[in-house]
Amino acid sequence: MKTLLRGIQLNGKPTNILINGNRFESVNAPDNAYANTAIECHRYAILPAFYNAHNHAAMTILRGYADDMPLQTWLEDHIWPKERAMGRAEVYEGSVMAINEMISSGTVFFNDMYFSMSRTATAVREAGIRAAIGVTYMDSYSDKMKASKEERICNWMEDQDSMIQITAAPHAVYTVSGENLQKLYRLARDHGRRFHIHVSETRKEVEDCMKAFGMTPVRYLDKLGVLGPDVIAAHCVHVDREEWDILAERGVTVVHCPCSNMKLGSGRFPYEMAIESGVRVTLGTDGCSSNNNLDMREEMKFAALLAKLNGDTSLLSAPEVLKWATVNGAEAFGIDAGVIADGKLADAIIVDLASPRMRPCYNLISNWVYAADSSCIRMVLCNGKIILDKRS
Question: What CATH number should be reported for the domain holding residue 374?
Fold first, then answer.
């Protein structure tokens, strides 16, 4: 099945883009290229889709439930008690809401950490998007549940689905023992899984880790031998220069969640050290209960502005933060996408250049990062299929 996007803007110039199956066959196709479907796109521009590298999708059902409080109070006194009363039906409902919201704002992949993962997987398959779904783990789980989680890391039926991958997802150093972190990392490594964990999100987490182990979370994880190129470390707000060097040397991917970090008062991400270290940085929304939306374009703008807060207006430019939200996220999860180029998987956002927020358009990327919102989106493509169409 071939689709031709005729006259669409790419890198500031009109072109014809031919999609063959689930990949871009040509981003400079002739006008008369054979296609089963041709779409006139002269008022549109094409951009890479978003890859949300840290999320708790089903928490969308708790949007607005507990706001304006510190992380530990929010988590221990409100969220965890509420989650204990949630069942599989609520997880499915929350996941469906989350996925619909993500698609509407241009996200075609999310890296999830929640429970009842099979219900989230069902919602992902129904929507036709991509996901990495975490096998969550905490020491507070029963022995039976922990054994079941470990078995799922080793053998889970979703392995046959090319759009879904499984991760080992221990919550954090303060909820999972060193012994269990090592065991989970071995299982993940032995079965080709990524390892997804919260790291140094708050000052309290760092202080508690220092009291318990005599070192900061990154140093502790490194001592345990559980840092490597298969690790996705969420937040990393309170990470010093030496720790950034450790993360870079180990090839760890870091997920920056600016809106959640600001809302929970976690602190400013150390952009200067992160960028200087050469670590691959991605963007994530975190969950709707701490954000309170799943709009990756909004995360780009907040990240770029927060970076400049200390006075360096050149820090984290629009093209660089777009890279964090797109190709960096795709690469971190082994997805051959994130750029609009021949041979790449056909994931994309198509925006309307006539939208009030896109006019005038001196610089498409600047407009997309700083001026636009999801109302500018006309189509979203995932794996070569149009999963959102607002052209009417």
Answer: 2.30.40.10
